[in-house]
């Protein structure tokens, strides 16, 4: 743990907008932002955990395994882990950005969040491309669109996500700042040029692989597929177009602010004004990014009529089974509690018909 915070060798990064200034000027504004962030994080945690948990249950245990269910299962796992780590971030904000979990957890928590951020975005891309290929390139799809290939791509996505997230294990550190411990990216090096290059490479890779390429793939495949559906089936085109539009819009709204501020972060060290802008904007942008983890299961699975029917049937079966087990338990308790050698009661006048 370091005693002095090195401003030049650090990056701003999300969830750090309260780390570097203990003055009370504008604290009311920061407090409001903290409250908004905690509220959004809490909603994302509750809705995301419940929604992705349902999707994991349905695609992993209640339905036949298909290529589509493999994509959705892995997407739900990535989003589930992404949002289930939020209580640590909520605790960090509520403590006014005092990190109490130690340096190992600082590295590990950032690594897990980053892995699942990349995985979630790449699985969204895989779903969009697979949907396009399966409906437009039928011959190629019938030959190569198999469960084996789908699982291979999923494993590849997890490996790539892990490799891209390794900088969190290398640069993430804790430091003592104004009587508080903070968790941040420390690009420590004697050369300012090397520090700037490390920060630049990290942001560019994250923005390119984590947003630009996936957004282009999702948008282009969605638009082309919508045009194809228009020529094939005019009855379903309106609902299908709305789904595609919702997917693209949700991805754009949730991730554009985060990556915009992430790119702006590159110039933070040379502008005090930009530093204050990032302190205001980054918490809200980070909240939207986490919110994407609870939007995905709603858009991709839970809005499906077939899935809603399956979920309803599963709930009815579960309720019926629980009632049967409860009834059997009560009946068993009553039979055990009844005496076995009691003499038969003589009929009374009131019991004779």
From TrEMBL:
It is a multi-pass membrane protein. The keyword Hydrolase does not apply. It comes from the Eukaryota. It is found in: Membrane. It holds the Pfam family 7tm_1. InterPro entries: Formyl_rcpt-rel, GPCR_Rhodpsn, GPCR_Rhodpsn_7TM. Residues 333-353 are annotated as: Disordered. Signal peptide: none annotated. Keywords: Chemotaxis, Disulfide bond, G-protein coupled receptor, Glycoprotein, Membrane, Receptor, Transducer, Transmembrane, Transmembrane helix. This is G-protein coupled receptor 1. The lineage of its organism: Eukaryota, Metazoa, Chordata, Craniata, Vertebrata. The gene is cmklr2.
């Amino acid at each position: 743990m370091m005693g002095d915070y090195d401003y030049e060798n650090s990056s701003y990064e999300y969830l750090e907008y309260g780390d570097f200034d203990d003055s009370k000027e504008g604290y009311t504004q920061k407090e409001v932002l903290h409250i908004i962030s905690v509220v959004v994080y809490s909603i994302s945690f509750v809705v995301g955990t419940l929604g992705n948990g349902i999707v994991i249950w349905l695609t992993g245990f209640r339905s036949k395994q298909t290529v589509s269910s493999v994509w959705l299962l892995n997407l739900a796992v990535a989003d589930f882990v992404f949002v289930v780590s939020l209580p640590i971030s909520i605790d960090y904000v509520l403590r006014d950005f005092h990190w109490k979990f130690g340096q190992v957890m600082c590295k590990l928590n950032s690594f897990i969040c980053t892995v699942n951020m990349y995985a979630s975005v790449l699985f969204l891309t895989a779903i969009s491309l697979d949907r396009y290929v399966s409906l437009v390139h039928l011959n190629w799809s019938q030959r190569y669109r198999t469960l084996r290939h789908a699982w291979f791509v999923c494993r590849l996505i997890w490996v790539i996500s892990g490799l891209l997230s390794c900088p969190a294990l290398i640069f993430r550190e804790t430091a003592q700042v104004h009587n508080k411990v903070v968790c941040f990216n420390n690009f420590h090096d004697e050369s300012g040029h090397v520090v700037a290059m490390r920060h630049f490479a990290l942001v560019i890779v994250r923005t390119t692989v984590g947003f630009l390429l996936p957004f282009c793939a999702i948008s282009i495949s969605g638009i082309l597929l919508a045009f194809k559906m228009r020529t094939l089936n005019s009855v379903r085109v309106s609902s299908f177009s709305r789904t595609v539009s919702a997917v693209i819009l949700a991805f754009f709204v949730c991730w554009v602010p985060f990556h915009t501020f992430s790119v702006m972060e590159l110039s933070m060290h040379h502008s005090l004004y930009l530093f204050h802008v990032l302190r205001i904007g980054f918490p809200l942008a980070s909240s939207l990014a986490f919110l994407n983890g609870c939007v995905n299961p709603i858009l991709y699975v839970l809005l499906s009529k077939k899935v809603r029917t399956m979920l309803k049937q599963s709930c009815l079966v579960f309720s019926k089974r629980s009632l049967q087990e409860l009834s059997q338990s009560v009946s068993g308790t009553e039979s055990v509690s009844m005496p076995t050698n009691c003499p038969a009661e003589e009929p009374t006048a009131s019991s004779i018909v």
